[in-house]
From TrEMBL:
The organism's place on the tree of life at top rank: Bacteria
Protein name listed in UniProt: UDP-N-acetylmuramyl pentapeptide phosphotransferase/UDP-N-acetylglucosamine-1-phosphate transferase
Keywords: Membrane, Transmembrane, Transmembrane helix
Residue stretches spanning the membrane: 79-102
Length: 256
């Protein structure tokens, strides 16, 4: 089935949570009022959702080009994977959103630097949340905490993530639904755009370095294994979840 995947237990799981969450996020952003900031955040979120759902529905699951490095390798070989298209599409929508959010009184060079760096933050955040959507509730928990922090720092738009996470929480933890690329990319893009719109330039650069560092690390190490081998992270990861199968415990909660 196009809207179904096999999860880490080998069981079927629905992808319909993703579009539902994405629509909820865009509506939540729009409810904050008409402004350039609202348009920028809705564009970043909607763009990430659209290119994410293309990857969800058209991805060749037999394709070996997994991860950012795999998609870049495929591009060098003259092949554009759905994941590669997603990288380009989310990157483009992130740049447009950043251009709408950039300060108007800056010089041309500084504006260009800000647009490139902030656009990269939007796209990289979308990718990072997607990397976390490998176990039930993991992406929602981390995104909800990040959104709450952004809300405290003065971003009402980020609170849309808290609402979406709350609505999807039970089905996600019950392993009935998952965000998929559509939902995870939309959540991450909104978090990235909300960061751009609500925190200072030095903080944005620091967040970009952290997000890019985690993304690079994911190409070499398994987040799931690190979480399984770190007791306090594993406790957080298991809140609300079904107990692990013996095989999962033996393998360090998987290799993804």
């Amino acid at each position: 089935m196009r809207w179904s995947r096999t999860n880490h237990r080998g069981e079927p799981i629905s992808l319909l949570e993703g579009p539902a969450v994405a629509v909820g996020l865009v509506c939540g952003v729009a409810a904050a009022g008409r402004s350039r900031k609202t348009v920028a955040l809705a564009l970043a979120t909607g763009g990430a959702a659209v290119f994410g759902v293309i990857d969800d529905l058209a991805e060749d699951t037999s394709e070996r080009s997994k991860g950012l490095r795999g998609h870049l390798r495929a591009a060098r070989q003259g092949r554009l994977t759905t994941g590669g298209l997603k990288v380009l599409g989310i990157g483009a929508s992130g740049l447009v959103a950043a251009a709408l959010l950039v300060e108007r009184d800056l010089g041309a060079v500084r504006r260009a630097v800000d647009v490139l760096a902030d656009g990269a933050l939007v796209a990289a955040s979308a990718n990072l949340v997607n990397l976390l959507d490998l176990r039930p509730g993991r992406a929602l928990k981390s995104s909800g905490l990040a959104a709450a922090a952004l809300g405290i720092s003065g971003s009402p738009h980020a609170l849309a993530v808290v609402g979406a996470a709350s609505s999807a929480w039970s089905a996600d933890l019950a392993e009935q639904d998952m965000l998929g690329d559509c939902g995870a990319n939309a959540v991450g893009a909104l978090l990235g755009a909300a960061t751009v719109s609500s925190v200072s330039r030095p903080v944005r650069r620091l967040v970009l370095v952290v997000v890019l560092g985690l993304t690079a690390a994911s190409e070499r190490v398994s987040f799931s294994r690190i979480i399984a081998e770190t007791p306090w992270l594993e406790r957080l990861d298991m809140i609300g979840r079904r107990p692990l199968d013996p095989q999962e415990q033996t393998l360090g909660n998987g290799t993804a």
